[in-house]
Amino acid sequence: MFVIEDERHAESGAGFRSLDAAIHELRRLASVPWDQKPNQAPCRNWRRCGRRYEVVEYDTIVTPWTEVRRLGRLSISSAGVEWAAEFEREASL
């Protein structure tokens, strides 16, 4: 299971069965303006904040789920969209 998490605000989004599906959703999120939902940060200081999304892979066979790995980051804020340099390399593993 792959879950997109906003590491900065400790929020988890929907789960995806494949890494490709999670990456597709990240690309969609990157196309949404920073000040519109779901990219508008939930904090009071949202105009100066932003989202920092990570893809987290979980082993769902065990309970509670066990984190397998975290893949790169996508940061979205008023400064723009920034993909972590290592994201493409990590995502292809």
What is the secondary structure topology, with strand pairs?
Elements: E1 2-6, E2 11-16, H1 19-30, E3 50-59, E4 66-77, E5 80-83, H2 87-91
Antiparallel strand pairs: 1-2, 1-3, 3-4, 4-5
Write structural notes for this entry:
With 93 residues, the protein is an alpha+beta fold. It has one domain (2-91). 18% of the residues lie in helices and 40% in strands. It is built from two helices and five strands. The protein has helices at residues 19-30, 87-91, and strands at 2-6, 11-16, 50-59, 66-77, 80-83. Strands 2-1-3-4-5 form a five-stranded antiparallel sheet. The chain starts with a strand and ends with a helix. The model has no long low-confidence stretch (mean pLDDT 91).
Features:
93 residues; alpha+beta; five-stranded antiparallel sheet; globular
Give the domain tally.
Answer: 1
N to C succession of SSEs: EEHEEEH
Distance between the termini: 15 Å
Number of strands: 5
Please compute the radius of gyration using only Cα atoms.
13 Å
Question: What percent of the residues sit in helical stretches (DSSP H or I)?
Answer: 10-25%
Low-confidence stretches: none
How many helices? The count is 2
The main sheet orders its strands as 2-1-3-4-5
Mean of the pLDDT scores?
A: 91
Output the structural class.
Answer: alpha+beta
The major sheet is characterized as: 5 strands, antiparallel
Shape: globular
